[in-house]
Amino acid sequence: MKRKIGGEEVSAIGMGSWDVHDPKAFYETLLYAFERGINLVDTAEMYRTEPIIGEAMRVYGKPDEIFVTTKLYPWHLKEEEECFKALERQRRRLGKVPDLTLVHWPEDIATEVRVLEKALEKGLTRMIGVSNVTKEQFEVALTAPKRHEIVAVQNKYSYWFRRTEEILPILEEKGIALQAHTPLEKGRLLHDQKIAKVARELSVPPAAIAIAWLLSRSPVVIPIPKTERKEHLDEILKALEVKLPKWALDELS
Ligand SMILES: NC(=O)c1ccc[n+]([C@@H]2O[C@H](COP(=O)([O-])OP(=O)(O)OC[C@H]3O[C@@H](n4cnc5c(N)ncnc54)[C@H](OP(=O)(O)O)[C@@H]3O)[C@@H](O)[C@H]2O)c1
């Protein structure tokens, strides 16, 4: 299953990389994910996972086929020069220009988006977007760039946390991707009674139900769960094989 970011096809599920405990295990899981057709990875200046992702892409051998989202600290988005330096560091750590760069958390979103737009025009990122935005901040971000458009929003979105659905209609109308972060509620969602019940009845792991539910909400949604275990990734990827029947969607409504 594929989804789109800025008109380019990416896998419908991406790999998160926050809070990696065992870098070697994460690296091996990432390579395994690439081999299984996942071509979207999320990082940020804050995560310090760019070198692992860069090495996995290099060993995989086709870095241009992997779509990397990164996010910059707000203090690197106040001035163009700081942003350019931060993105140059990202390029060195990743071994390629980031495909998509987001404002990690907004402070003065109009300025931050315009600074990112300048970086895009200098070739330091291929696309731009925002993260952790309210509806009001999102609306400002939509009109802030002068010559380009934001192509993605990365907000928290899970079965338990649905506030970001208020911007779904505009995202769908404009074809802007919604990268759903914390889609498993850090693993806690897998113990939800309704998720567990549907999982039991359909004989699939709870992680697959949590991700399949997000995929069912809209064609612009792209969940980005994090795992550093191949067996957990196998469970997550079962979401791509599950079509939630009406009774299950009703149960989870
Ligand atoms: N923009 C932002 O401000 C922001 C904020 C938060 C997150 N994010 C992004 O979104 C990504 C995902 O969010 P998250 O990492 O915070 O939380 P998450 O994806 O909701 O949950 C990750 C946790 O779930 C566990 N897990 C994964 N698959 C599992 C399975 N099949 N069974 C049991 N446990 C499982 C992982 O452990 P194992 O590794 O042991 O599998 C990990 O502890 C992040 O990594 C990051 O890239 C962005």
Structural account:
The structure is a single chain. By secondary structure, the chain is an alpha/beta fold. The chain has one domain (2-187, 214-228): Alpha-Beta Barrel (TIM Barrel). It contains ten helices and nine strands. It has helices at residues 23-35, 50-60, 80-94, 109-121, 135-143, 168-174, 193-202, 206-217, 230-237, 246-251, and strands at 2-5, 8-11, 40-42, 67-72, 100-103, 127-131, 150-156, 177-181, 221-223. Strands 3-4-5-6-7-8-9 form a seven-stranded parallel beta sheet. Strands 1-2 form a two-stranded antiparallel sheet. Helix 2 links the parallel strand 3 (40-42) and strand 4. Helix 1 (23-35) packs across helix 2 (50-60) and helix 8 (206-217) crosses helix 9 (230-237). The site of NADP nicotinamide-adenine-dinucleotide phosphate has 29 residues, from helix 9.
Spatial arrangement of strands, main beta sheet: 3-4-5-6-7-8-9
CATH topology tier name:
TIM Barrel
CATH homologous superfamily identity: NADP-dependent oxidoreductase domain
Q: Report the end-to-end length measured between terminal Cα atoms.
A: 23 Å
Look at the helices and sheets and give the structural class.
alpha/beta
The largest pleated sheet is described as: 7 strands, parallel
Task: Report the count of strand segments.
Answer: 9
- The string of secondary-structure elements, in order, is EEHEHEHEHEHEHEHHEHH
- Assign an overall shape: globular
Low-confidence blocks of residues: none
Domain module count? 1
Strand percentage lies at 15-25%
The number of helical runs is 10
Domain NADP-dependent oxidoreductase: 13-247
Pfam families: Aldo_ket_red (PF00248)
GO molecular function: oxidoreductase activity
Protein name: Oxidoreductase
